[in-house]
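Minutes, project huddle
Topic: does the predicted pose make sense with pyridoxal-5'-phosphate bound?
PN asked that the exact inputs be recorded in the minutes so nobody has to dig through chat later. Recorded below.
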Amino acid sequence: MSQNYQVDNQGYYGPYGGAYVPEMLYPNIMELQNNYLSIINDVSFQKELDELLHNYVGRPTPLYFADRLSKYYNTNIFLKREDLCHTGAHKINNSLGQILLAKRLGKTRIIAETGAGQHGVATATACSLMGFECDIFMGAKDIVRQAPNVERMKMLGANIVPVHSGSKTLKDATNEAIRNWINNPTDTHYIIGSVVGPHPYPDIVARFQSVISKEVKLQLGKNPDYIIACVGGGSNAMGIFYHYLDEDTKLIGVEAAGHGVDTPMTAATLAVGTKGVLHASMTKVMQTNDGQVVEPHSVSAGLDYPGIGPQHAYLEEVGKATYHSVTDQEAIDAAHLLARKEGIIPALESAHALAYLEKLVCFKKDIVVVNLSGRGDKDLETYKTFSDNEY
Ligand SMILES: *Cc1c(COP(=O)(O)O)cnc(C)c1O
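Predicted holo structure (tokens), as shared on screen:
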């Protein structure tokens, strides 16, 4: 693996990344920075994680040739079926990796933030499995909007901590989780859910999600022409890009345009964002001229984030990957198409990656791999609402 696109020993990807943390957080971050690589690279750690991924998560997930969808688009489309992971999305790969890391660090308690609740469910699952205490910070507004996932987390034994400050959503929950971590530095590990946050989190999460591209390489036997993945913070995309960074496969990230990138109702960070610090990392951020974070919009809760992982900001800047966006409606339409062509209901997040197939200019002989990051059961209400409006 070339070092060119990976984090340097200062924690940066070109100008992006770093650890812009308050001084009170230094001990926690330094402990992670100093230990994560030796722990993750340890053979017994890898063995334990591999066994869990195989027997508990159900890996390797299939790489499925979507015949009818391929005919429709006149090309060759493979779906990487992360929707078939235990708990229904790729996030469990990271939560399990990080809880094993926490165990090796001698921690007994886990905290996490969640917006849509998907990362909360994956983390509550990992905590139940390992017998860890688990506090999930969640905006009061999101607790109401994401009631089914809140029930799941509770049934799994997690304690939900409502956050009433600010806009009562994800960024406020993140701030509260960080505050809690500062106050509990010795027994607690903070599991961040995407390739965001201070170094070394983007690298930790990318490594745990890289199992996706490791499997695709074995399953396909040759390099695809295109890889397409949706981008919220960017963990499923980074996972499927990871082992192709030194190949000539074209890597495509798809952000949520919401109502459109020329409207205020968007979450397409790379399209409208500028350089700035968000959640302790130098990256691209949706912000006003004086640096206030702008409230994003996407119909998909998992993509509704005003930032993006620093490695993606870098890959875009150096031209290693390209980033595009599709609207709410385009994603909904793509989800209906997949349901009718292949009998698979995708997560609304993943539907953004699928919607880009409409815009991809490719040949009949080309091989296109789409990361199907999650299943759509959680999104049925939204699919139904949009269809009711349409017909
Ligand atoms: C959370 C989520 C995403 C977005 O997160 P990334 O870190 O960008 O992958 C995408 N798909 C699904 C199914 C999710 O749950």
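Observations noted during the meeting:
- The chain is about 40% helix and 20% strand.
- Residues 26-40 form the longest helix (15 residues).
No decisions taken; revisit at the next huddle.
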